[in-house]
# Entry
Amino acid sequence: MRGLVFFVKITDRFSGWIGHAAAWLMIPVVLVAFGVVLMRYLFSVGYPWMQEVYIWLHGVAFMLAAALVLRDEGHVRVDLFYKRFSPRARAWADFAGVWLFLMPMMFVIITMSWPIVLRSWRMMEQSPTADGLPFLYLLKSMVLVFCVLVTLQGLALAGRSLLVILGREDQLAPSGPGGHA
# Structure
């Protein structure tokens, strides 16, 4: 059990660190977007690469923060019944959800995107936009990073749920900000 507790705590901490670091990407997203709008409407000038910078950074921030959102239960859920469940029943629902929905979806995304990312790296793919950014392969690689991060956090959620099901949730006493270890 100690190994499972360690894995859950370290994964929660890692997802928090990556997710909060990704949140800082929103500052350049907003600043560059503001600059693009300002240049377009005040000076009638536009640079495609600038538009791609804020769009790509937004995508990177979204993909890096997804595991934190999963950890903090921030994804949209239809909880007609879930919030009425006991903590143990919620743990069963989370455990089943990880194995029936999350893991199969991560498997599909990884297997479908892997060849696309490899091809992109082989050809050092660039933006199809004239004057766009030259490293589209890095952005496409973020899909795989997203899958790894969400898969790890999904495993941590399954582990946390298992500990609750077994009546061992006391081993996961909060020791960090936001109630996470």
User: Anything to note?
Assistant: The longest helix spans residues 87-122. The mean pLDDT is 92. The chain is about 70% helix and 0% strand.
